[in-house]
Amino acid sequence: MCNQEELMAYLDGEASAGMAEHLEECGDCQVLAAELRGVSARLMEWEVEPPGAGLDRRVRAALAPEKKVLARRWWPWALGTAGVCVVALVAVSIMPSQRVAQMIVPQRVSEGKLRVTMPMSAPMLARTAQIALSTTAFDKARAALDDILQRHQGYFGNVSLTAPDNAARSLVATLRVPTAQLDATLAEVRKLGHVQSESQSGEEVSAQYVDLEARLANARHTEQRLTDLLHQRTGDLADVLAVEKELDNTRGEIESMEAEEKALSKRVDYANLTVTITEDFTARPDASTLGRFRRAAIDGCQSLAGSIVAVALFLLAWAPTTLVWCGLLWLVYWGMRRLLARRRP
Amino acid sequence: MDSDEELIAQFARGSREAFEELFARYREPLYGFFRRRLDSRERAEDLAQETFLAVIRGAPRWEPKALVRTWLYGIALKLLYAERRKLQRGAPSESVVVGEAEDTKLWIRQALARLDATEREILMLREYEQLSYAEIAELLRIPVNTVRSRLFRARMALRDCLKGEV
Fold first, then answer.
1. B56 and chain A: CB distance < 8 Å anywhere?
2. pLDDT tens digits, A21-47
């Protein structure tokens, strides 16, 4: 009995040449081989038309020089940024703030220079930075922040000010500044006080952008096709309605993707800078004798009020339980006394 | 001539020419892969394009564990399965696409349609994409011997169809 599968594998170039000799001698196998070749030849009659030029155009559009470089070189940049952040965080955690501030400034300046000389094919980064400062001149710092923002064409995203009586004031502001201006803005913000902490990060969005653009191009292409289909409609009403429905869906998708693209571009164009300014309360100049008495009196009153509140809270928290237990213990005591009184002669 | 694997490595290092060469090699085969499996010519072009876009995105992470050809058809198969799922859900975009059966070899399509889905896929990958048994086994995650036996069964079924036609 001939091994027919082996014969097929031989014809496909997937079996040893030993089958060749058998094939020359075996009539059945020759018939089967002819049939198998016939099946393959018949299948190969199904030829497809060549693809349209649109395929080349769209693939090459996605391969624009700057995007190609972005796609393959995002990771060294991301690693570099992560490395800088880690070094900065370690430095912040182990060194006094003043020294850290002095060290970070030149590093940022050199980074800024690097960015300026980077080619146009640099990765698309959504940059964010955080800086925390303390200052004795809180009001001046706040006003200066407005000036800095105006000078660098930025705007406030969110501002929150806390100003309790006789305590340090603090300001948390989210600034949106053009990415190219981030380093210069940061350099000026650092001068507003003592830097307590600082960090920067960059999210690589190049691949996301390329992907979005490709999907958008596809959707626009589909929209065009559907519009053409509607103009040359020859089908029945159900078909036309179906095309119109699909056209609506596609347009909705396009609008959504365009909004996404706009938001993404904005994230790249504008960096997020979160500035926290805390008033240096202990260093506030108020060292006169009268001022010290006043502060001591205020502190004394606050301390008294605090202790009264604490006692009231303690009583409220424990009084019910204490009363119940005291009542129970008194009952036991009273019972014992009566028992002992009865036994006495 | 550089191998596909050399080309993808060059592309990952930034050579646009390497991708152009790879694109030229697989442009028509990949389009044909989708075209023979889908009714819509536009969708076939779209999916071939998506396959190349996936290559552009994935090239930096490509590792020479498998042949580039297997990798490409692996991507294409995933896209095809996703498209079929979409079609099964009755997406309206496909409901208006009219068949182009008059332009194709109706007999072949009908004969292939009668086969079991896996057997049909094995046969088509072998005949049209010219993949080896090992490559088909890797793509479909089945043993090589299963590929061989099911391919034989599919060809015998087609032979019987052919005899019936005659």
1. yes
2. 888 888 888 999 999 998 998 888 888
